[in-house]
Amino acid sequence: MYKIIYISLLIFLFSACNNIIENLHSSDTYTLNIPQGFPQPSIPEDNQLTNTRVLLGKMLFYDPILSRDSTISCAHCHHPEKAFTDALPLSKGIEARMSIRNAPPLQNLAYQNSFMRDGGVPTIELQVLAPIEDHNEMDFNILHAAKRVANNIQYQKLSELAYGRKPDPYVITRALAAFERTLISGYSRYDDYLYRKGYLNASELRGKELFFSDSLNCSACHSGFNFTNGTFQNNGLYLHYNDPGRQRITTDSLDNGKFRVPSLRNIGYTAPYMHDGSKQTLEEVVDHYASGGQNHPLKSNLIKGFYLTQEDKKSLISFLNSLNDSKFVNNEQYKK
Amino acid sequence: MVTTVALALLLLACKKPATEPEPQPTNNNGTLKVNLIAKFNGQPYTINQAQSVINISGYSVQVEVLKFFLYDLRTKTQAGMETQFKDAAKIDFINGNPSFTAEVQPGNYQGIKFGIGVGPDKNNSDPTVLAPDHPLSINQAQDMHWNWNTGYIFMKFEGRVDTASPLSGNHDLLFSFHTGNNALYREVELYNHPFTITTGNTTNLNLVFNIDKFFYNTNDTLDLKTDHSLHAFTVTSLGTRVADISVGIFTLE
Questions:
Q1: Does A238 reach chain B within 8 Å, measured CB to CB?
Q2: Which of A330, A219, A233, A236 shows the shortest CA–CA distance to A279?
Q3: What is the dihedral sign for C-alpha B91, B94, B97, B98?
Q4: A147, A170, A173, A253: best mutation site toward chain B, by most B Cβ within 10 Å?
Q5: pTM of the predicted model, to two decimals?
Q6: Are A78 and A86 in contact (CB under 8 A)?
Q7: What's the gap in Å between the CA of B60 and the closest CA on chain A?
Q8: Which of B3, B7, B147 sits opposite A133 (nearest CB)?
Q9: Taking 90 as the threshold, does the pLDDT of residue A252 lie above it?
Q10: Looking at B147-185, which runs of residues are DSSP E strands?
Q11: Cβ pair A133:B132 closer than 8 A
């Protein structure tokens, strides 16, 4: 009896999914919701956004089919309610293998011009290959993953609709990139304050003043609409780095310990912090910069240390938390 | 279930045969067949068969992996006109001496020229956009592509070595040279071996990888005791040395 119910349920789910797919058209343009203050992102000619492409990417994002043992999906390390991070210092791959870095938030990627914390990958499409094939993450081969995806009838249909071809590495990398480009966050309380007559309280306003001050210098690196200037900096986290950061890509010893300046958007959702998740709280992060960090010879000369009263420290953190975008982390469109 | 079985049968039926027939020229061109041959001191060498040879340092060497890309392969007519005859070829000696073919216009040629690795115009590009049968596609390149630092691995040369003096018989030291990076791309010009292409016929050209020359050139010697590991996706001193030495490895027969 249970078997019959189970099979009926499967048939129902299958036909429901089929109906959704049948109602999609390959030319349905997906319109990005660009927040005020944000520029129009540049989308590659061969991967213009359509509803079908975004849907296919989203399905793949939440499907463990891309990991060797089918146990983890992209969402395993990138939870929407945590701005697509995982609250762990270092993420865990299949068989609980430890990755080498803290999972970065997936937000406003459409505006990035290189990927990974060391900037070793030039496009979102190519970035897709890294976690799938990384021994410590999904530990799979993109060709094997593509074969698996191609054996699924739903994916076959969507792939044909989205890209006019069967699922293959091209389709998988494009579709995941398409979904990730839709993850745009620009509706924080600070954005409301700037553009929609929202307000910040006195503590947040004091924090804002400190953040943009020459004495703290936060905004020298965390600048622009996305609160990052996109450069690679050594922030004096260590005197000796186990992870060489950007040097891993360039092997230039002058790049030792340099990592991409992260966006501060949604920072309240993305603890722990730093490339290795070594700072548990924003208080610890502020203390690090206030101390001036370790005396690494390549430390950014903008990090000189500063003094903050307890009250000002609270204010600075209040301002940072005003960059949290609750609409982004609760956006049902991004969820499974 | 029935659909799955039918699909599986269809897939099996469509699967390419293990050995594909050589492509026939579609016009009045001829075929140039380039046969890669591994040799050590002029004698045939078989990769991954525990064949021991003594290199310039007196070490006993066994080569287990030899793979590389040839890029922008060109010919030059006796009149001096240079033409590309193949954009890229992936070479892997794991199953013996490999070969590849290309269509070439009839004529008398001085020899061939090629790059070792993948040229800067293509090295950092997206391998998923290429047709699955293209040598640089993700399907063909496979472990010759870095996904975390986008670019191709130009060459893999791996094996075991016995550096003891006198030799111990134990090849217990591993060596592994992986080169990459635009700055380590090198061109090899072998316009010293004339050949002729005629319409509808195949001309064979033997391109020899002289393993003995992997370890030295007139200016430098790689000492496997100390120089045994290189993963040069970027420019290092050893990477530059290996890239420079590799220019002298190839000869035509």
A1: no
A2: A236
A3: negative
A4: A170
A5: 0.87
A6: yes
A7: 32
A8: B147
A9: no
A10: 151-162, 173-180
A11: no
Dihedral pair phi/psi, residue A12, rounded to 5°? -65, -50
Mean pLDDT of the region A169-179:
98
Best residue in B129, B138, B178, B236 to probe A by mutation, most A CBs within 10 Å?
A: B138
Residue A13: how many CA atoms within 13 Å on its side-chain side?
7
Q: What is the mean pLDDT of each run of 10 residues along chain B (253 residues)?
A: 43 41 72 98 96 96 98 97 98 97 97 98 96 97 93 96 96 93 94 96 98 93 88 71 94 96
Query: What is the C-alpha separation between B240 and B198, in angstroms, rounded?
Result: 40
Q: How far apart are CA B20 and CA B18, in angstroms?
A: 6
Nearest in space to A265 (alpha carbons), one of A234, A223, A235: A223
Which is more confident, A194 or A14? A194
Q: Which residue has the tokens 């791309």?
A: B185
Q: Tell me the ipTM for this assembly.
A: 0.85
Q: Give the three-class secondary structure for B32.
A: strand
CB B110 within 8 A of CB B129: no
In the block, tokens 């910040």 appear at: A200
Q: Does A103 reach chain B within 8 Å, measured CB to CB?
A: no
pLDDT digits (tens, 9 = 90+) for A268-289: 999 999 999 999 999 999 999 9
Q: What distance in Å separates residue B198's CA from the closest CA in chain A?
A: 39
**Preferred mutation among A251, A252, A253 to probe B, highest tally of B CBs within 10 A:** A251
Contact (CB<8Å) A143/B148: no
Neighbours of B201 (CB within 10 A): 12
Element (H, E) at B230: strand B229-232
